[in-house]
């Protein structure tokens, strides 16, 4: 195994193409699916948020900051920072009040990533905080057809966009993680 091309591996034993065995997967839940449109969106969003964090678990600061697919500036740590910025931006969509960028200039979320544990801890805290604030802001708008401040977007469209954003970046995280240490699985 070379650092540039690690051997592919999975922790899962039941389904080797999965990230974790079903009994160990926090995304799996027993029981019926959620009732209603907003709870369904929230359920999918929660699973993608969990998936992103799972793809980052078990890596050190250097691995999280590694730009695994040159010349891209994308890294797993950059994804955490980017999604914190995106969550913050969605609040502007909800109430129309622009917020300053967390990491300064445009693209600093990816470009200014440092392989430092304090930066990793800050990014995780930023993401959790921004998710919580956006969730709380959206909870004030339970009608999926309600139109919000930015561009008269509906709550429904914003929720679908949030799911899409996390799903797309979880795909990036799959590839980044595989390049870092060879671990695969959905």
UniProtKB/TrEMBL annotation:
- Entry-linked Gene3D superfamilies: dinb family like domain
Positions of region (Disordered): 1-41
Report the superkingdom from the record.
Answer: Bacteria
Q: Name one Pfam family in it.
A: MST
Name it: DUF664 domain-containing protein
